[in-house]
Amino acid sequence: MPDAPTLLAFDTSAAHCAAALRSGGSLVALAQEDMARGQAERLIPMLEELLSQAGLCWGDLDALAVGIGPGNFTGLRVGVAAARGLALGLDRPCHGVSSFDVALSATSGDALVCLPAPRDMAHVRAYRDGAPDGPARLIDPSDPPGDLATGAGMQAVGPLALHVGPALGLPALETDLDAIAPRICEIAERRHMGGDTAPERPAPLYVRPPDAAPARAQPPVA
Q: Where are stretches of biased composition, namely Low complexity (predicted)?
């Protein structure tokens, strides 16, 4: 088995700026600051602070990881853009880890992962044998559609499991997304050590279309 990589992970998918650094199979530095805005200005200084705490520099990293959501549109773009830029500049692989993956890590069976979404809605996605079974969906957790998940052994997991699972007749395991950066780091480490050393470029996981609408006025003709 290959040695555990030195891996830096971060997440700006919600109202926070979070980062974690693992090396030699252990968590060596961690930071998380709650903030509704300002992640773009805070992220890189935070990452540099973590590296400094561990006595490392950018060139010591073997890989990067970033949370790809679902989550806040602007926050996702900040995190993913930073991850892509760093991966390109450092010539290092970068693993995109979704919040579904983080919540799923609490169980080893088939699961319907249920995450909070804006306006009291829920993001859900079914997994079988650890792999996605269909696209992520946005639902009303108080009235979930009956076609979401069926089959023996399926359970609801995630922060909204108790809101969605019982309505579908599924056993529910409520888990949170606290300390999300270390969990992203652990998942990426397992992937990297499992041989996924050339992952696809991370991309934001958008479940719903953006709220912004195109401008109605036509642009001036140059």
A: 208-222
**Cα separation of 60 and 56, whole Å?**
6
Total Cβ atoms within 10 A of residue 37:
12
Question: Which residues span the domain enclosing 170?
Answer: 107-174
H helices within the chain, ranges in order?
Answer: 39-53, 73-90, 99-104, 161-164, 180-193
CB 164 within 8 A of CB 124: yes
For the stretch 5-62, pLDDT in tens is: 999 999 999 999 999 999 999 999 999 999 999 999 999 999 999 999 999 999 999 9
Residue with tokens 């399926």: 154
E strands, 164-221, are 172-174
Question: In this structure, are 52 and 128 located in the same domain?
Answer: no
**203 within domain boundaries:** no
Total structural domains within the chain: 2
How much is the pTM? Answer: 0.91
Please choose, from the candidates 22, 202, 221, the residue with its C-alpha nearest in 3D space to the C-alpha of residue 95. Answer: 202
Give me the amino acid identity at 195. Answer: G
Joined tokens for residue 102? 């983080």
